[in-house]
Amino acid sequence: MPTSFDRDAMLAALESEQNALTALLPRFSDAQWRDASRADGWTAQDIASHVADSIYGLARLTLGEMEPMLPADPATGWMDASDYNEQRRQQNRTLPREKLASRMAAAFGTARRAIETVPDPEAAGPYGPQHTKAQWLQRIIDHAREHRTELEELLG
Protein backbone atom coordinates (compact mmCIF):
# COMPACT_ATOMS: atom_id res chain seq x y z
CA MET A 1 0.00 0.00 0.00
CA PRO A 2 1.32 3.45 -0.83
CA THR A 3 2.04 5.77 2.04
CA SER A 4 1.88 9.04 0.11
CA PHE A 5 -1.35 10.44 -1.25
CA ASP A 6 -1.43 11.62 -4.85
CA ARG A 7 -5.01 12.74 -5.36
CA ASP A 8 -4.70 13.21 -9.14
CA ALA A 9 -3.09 9.82 -9.69
CA MET A 10 -5.71 8.14 -7.54
CA LEU A 11 -8.53 9.86 -9.43
CA ALA A 12 -7.00 8.78 -12.74
CA ALA A 13 -6.69 5.18 -11.53
CA LEU A 14 -10.29 5.19 -10.32
CA GLU A 15 -11.50 6.57 -13.65
CA SER A 16 -9.50 3.92 -15.48
CA GLU A 17 -11.14 1.14 -13.47
CA GLN A 18 -14.58 2.62 -13.97
CA ASN A 19 -14.06 2.88 -17.71
CA ALA A 20 -12.71 -0.67 -17.90
CA LEU A 21 -15.64 -2.12 -15.94
CA THR A 22 -18.17 -0.06 -17.87
CA ALA A 23 -16.78 -1.48 -21.11
CA LEU A 24 -16.40 -5.02 -19.78
CA LEU A 25 -19.77 -5.78 -18.20
CA PRO A 26 -21.90 -5.45 -21.38
CA ARG A 27 -19.68 -8.03 -23.07
CA PHE A 28 -21.27 -10.79 -20.96
CA SER A 29 -24.23 -12.48 -22.62
CA ASP A 30 -27.25 -13.05 -20.39
CA ALA A 31 -26.24 -16.70 -20.03
CA GLN A 32 -22.63 -15.82 -19.17
CA TRP A 33 -23.86 -13.22 -16.69
CA ARG A 34 -25.77 -15.86 -14.76
CA ASP A 35 -23.65 -18.94 -15.41
CA ALA A 36 -19.97 -18.00 -15.75
CA SER A 37 -18.52 -18.51 -12.31
CA ARG A 38 -15.37 -18.73 -10.27
CA ALA A 39 -14.46 -21.99 -8.54
CA ASP A 40 -16.40 -20.87 -5.45
CA GLY A 41 -19.61 -20.44 -7.45
CA TRP A 42 -19.69 -16.65 -7.60
CA THR A 43 -21.13 -15.65 -10.97
CA ALA A 44 -20.20 -12.63 -13.06
CA GLN A 45 -23.34 -10.95 -11.73
CA ASP A 46 -22.33 -11.76 -8.13
CA ILE A 47 -18.85 -10.32 -8.64
CA ALA A 48 -20.09 -7.16 -10.35
CA SER A 49 -22.67 -6.55 -7.61
CA HIS A 50 -19.97 -7.05 -5.00
CA VAL A 51 -17.72 -4.51 -6.71
CA ALA A 52 -20.48 -1.88 -6.64
CA ASP A 53 -21.30 -2.65 -2.99
CA SER A 54 -17.69 -2.60 -1.85
CA ILE A 55 -16.71 0.59 -3.68
CA TYR A 56 -19.68 2.40 -2.17
CA GLY A 57 -19.19 1.03 1.33
CA LEU A 58 -15.43 1.57 1.49
CA ALA A 59 -15.79 5.14 0.23
CA ARG A 60 -18.47 6.00 2.78
CA LEU A 61 -16.45 4.39 5.58
CA THR A 62 -13.41 6.44 4.60
CA LEU A 63 -15.47 9.64 4.51
CA GLY A 64 -16.84 8.87 7.98
CA GLU A 65 -20.40 8.71 6.64
CA MET A 66 -20.78 5.16 7.96
CA GLU A 67 -19.48 3.62 11.13
CA PRO A 68 -17.58 0.33 10.88
CA MET A 69 -20.07 -2.47 11.48
CA LEU A 70 -17.97 -5.50 10.61
CA PRO A 71 -15.22 -7.00 12.74
CA ALA A 72 -11.61 -6.17 11.94
CA ASP A 73 -9.11 -8.88 11.18
CA PRO A 74 -6.46 -8.26 13.85
CA ALA A 75 -3.71 -9.67 11.65
CA THR A 76 -4.38 -7.34 8.72
CA GLY A 77 -6.27 -4.37 10.13
CA TRP A 78 -8.83 -4.67 7.34
CA MET A 79 -12.46 -5.55 7.99
CA ASP A 80 -13.52 -9.17 7.83
CA ALA A 81 -16.38 -9.03 5.34
CA SER A 82 -16.72 -12.67 4.27
CA ASP A 83 -20.08 -13.38 5.91
CA TYR A 84 -21.45 -9.97 4.96
CA ASN A 85 -20.33 -10.41 1.35
CA GLU A 86 -22.21 -13.70 1.16
CA GLN A 87 -25.37 -12.10 2.60
CA ARG A 88 -25.17 -9.29 0.04
CA ARG A 89 -24.51 -11.82 -2.71
CA GLN A 90 -27.78 -13.56 -1.91
CA GLN A 91 -29.67 -10.25 -1.69
CA ASN A 92 -28.33 -9.02 -5.05
CA ARG A 93 -28.90 -12.26 -6.96
CA THR A 94 -31.96 -10.97 -8.80
CA LEU A 95 -30.71 -7.44 -9.37
CA PRO A 96 -31.39 -6.43 -12.99
CA ARG A 97 -28.32 -5.49 -15.02
CA GLU A 98 -29.62 -1.94 -15.55
CA LYS A 99 -30.02 -1.42 -11.80
CA LEU A 100 -26.53 -2.81 -11.22
CA ALA A 101 -25.09 -0.44 -13.84
CA SER A 102 -26.75 2.46 -12.03
CA ARG A 103 -25.39 1.29 -8.66
CA MET A 104 -21.92 0.86 -10.15
CA ALA A 105 -21.93 4.42 -11.51
CA ALA A 106 -23.17 5.80 -8.18
CA ALA A 107 -20.53 3.81 -6.28
CA PHE A 108 -17.73 5.17 -8.46
CA GLY A 109 -19.19 8.65 -7.95
CA THR A 110 -19.03 8.18 -4.19
CA ALA A 111 -15.44 6.95 -4.42
CA ARG A 112 -14.52 9.93 -6.59
CA ARG A 113 -16.06 12.27 -4.01
CA ALA A 114 -14.11 10.53 -1.25
CA ILE A 115 -10.81 10.91 -3.09
CA GLU A 116 -11.55 14.54 -3.95
CA THR A 117 -12.70 15.61 -0.49
CA VAL A 118 -11.13 13.42 2.20
CA PRO A 119 -9.76 16.10 4.54
CA ASP A 120 -6.72 14.33 5.97
CA PRO A 121 -5.68 11.35 3.85
CA GLU A 122 -2.86 10.41 6.22
CA ALA A 123 -5.23 10.20 9.21
CA ALA A 124 -6.20 6.83 10.64
CA GLY A 125 -8.69 4.91 8.54
CA PRO A 126 -12.09 3.75 9.74
CA TYR A 127 -10.65 0.76 11.61
CA GLY A 128 -7.79 2.59 13.28
CA PRO A 129 -4.22 3.65 12.66
CA GLN A 130 -2.98 0.44 11.05
CA HIS A 131 -4.21 1.81 7.68
CA THR A 132 -4.63 5.46 6.70
CA LYS A 133 -7.60 6.90 4.86
CA ALA A 134 -5.37 7.12 1.78
CA GLN A 135 -4.72 3.39 2.04
CA TRP A 136 -8.45 2.72 2.29
CA LEU A 137 -9.03 4.81 -0.82
CA GLN A 138 -6.29 2.92 -2.63
CA ARG A 139 -7.95 -0.31 -1.51
CA ILE A 140 -11.08 0.71 -3.41
CA ILE A 141 -9.10 0.90 -6.64
CA ASP A 142 -7.10 -2.25 -5.99
CA HIS A 143 -10.23 -4.22 -5.08
CA ALA A 144 -12.05 -3.09 -8.23
CA ARG A 145 -9.00 -4.03 -10.32
CA GLU A 146 -8.75 -7.49 -8.73
CA HIS A 147 -12.38 -8.27 -9.45
CA ARG A 148 -12.24 -6.76 -12.94
CA THR A 149 -9.41 -9.17 -13.69
CA GLU A 150 -11.56 -12.06 -12.45
CA LEU A 151 -14.41 -10.93 -14.68
CA GLU A 152 -12.08 -10.74 -17.68
CA GLU A 153 -10.94 -14.30 -16.96
CA LEU A 154 -14.55 -15.50 -16.86
CA LEU A 155 -15.02 -14.18 -20.40
CA GLY A 156 -11.98 -16.17 -21.48
Automatic annotation (TrEMBL):
Kindly provide the name given to this protein in its UniProt entry: Mycothiol-dependent maleylpyruvate isomerase metal-binding domain-containing protein
Task: Report the Pfam families cross-referenced here.
Answer: MDMPI_N
Q: Which residues form the Mycothiol-dependent maleylpyruvate isomerase metal-binding domain?
A: 16-140
Q: Which organism is it from?
A: Kouleothrix aurantiaca
The protein's matches in InterPro entries, at most eight in alphabetical order, are given as: DinB/YfiT-like, MDMPI_metal-binding
